[in-house]
Amino acid sequence: MASQSDFLIGISCCTKPFGIFGTLNHAASDTYVRAVDDVVHGVPLLIAANGQAANIEALLDCFDGIILTGSRSNVAAEFYGGRPQASDPLAEDLKRDHVTLPLARQAVERGIPLLAICRGMQELNVALGGTLHQRLQDLPGRIDHSTSMQANEAIRTGKAHQVILTPGGLLAKIVGRQMLSVNSLHNQGIRRLAHGLTVEARAIDGTIEAVRGTGPDYVLGVQWHPEYDFQSDDASRMIFESFGAAIRRRRGHFFA
């Protein structure tokens, strides 16, 4: 059996303008890379957001696990029958969508361990046929799940509200708790849950905050960002540990 250090972990990228000329780059936060290095103990590889030019089959042939990352951008409304969204050029990232949606769908079909975070959980739901609320804060009875963009990182990424975990669910078993305090940096949220997913946690206002796949393979989505505080928060670290353990089990099965 191969050592765990040679596991290849795909990390989804966004397209973002960088520098004084706004040159388009493919980017993922360093926090995901460090979580793979320090907790999953795999080799992080960034997945370019190159749209319909992406070779999804070739990508999936390479990876032992996949992380769908969070992002400021939203899943484009056209993929789930929603209304056109704001004209903000950073509101959507179609090139990312054209990579991550088929990537998520086919990763689930192949049984490749998949950890979907924030936008990534929304992508997972849409990829499997679900729909989204575009602005949770506009719905009656919902709390504001977004966080203002401010320089103080402790406030921006700090714990914002609690989530209640499904008793006996995968996430409750991973973290050993029935309730968690989480950060919250999203506008969109799951409206209709996709077939093949089940709810693992909800916020106090009923918003779906975590899901898992109903099949035998590791498919976990969380609406918050455990990559921000895995070094100091036990539950966040345990989520990445469970992802790494699923990869080792799968590789052990193939190489036994």
Structure overview:
- With 256 residues, the chain is an alpha/beta fold.
- The protein has one domain (4-255): 3-Layer(aba) Sandwich (Rossmann fold).
- 30% of the residues lie in helices and 23% in strands.
- It is built from seven helices and 13 strands.
- A hairpin with a 4-residue loop joins strand 2 and strand 3.
- The radius of gyration is 17 Å and the shape is globular.
- The termini are close together.
- 43% of the residues are buried.
- The mean pLDDT is 91.
Set down the secondary structure blueprint.
Layout: E1 8-12, E2 14-18, E3 23-27, H1 30-40, E4 43-47, H2 56-62, E5 65-68, H3 94-110, E6 114-117, H4 119-127, E7 132-133, H5 153-156, E8 161-165, H6 170-175, E9 179-182, E10 189-190, E11 197-203, E12 208-213, E13 219-222, H7 234-255
Parallel strand pairs: 1-4, 1-5, 5-6, 6-13
Antiparallel strand pairs: 2-3, 7-10, 8-9, 8-11, 11-12, 12-13
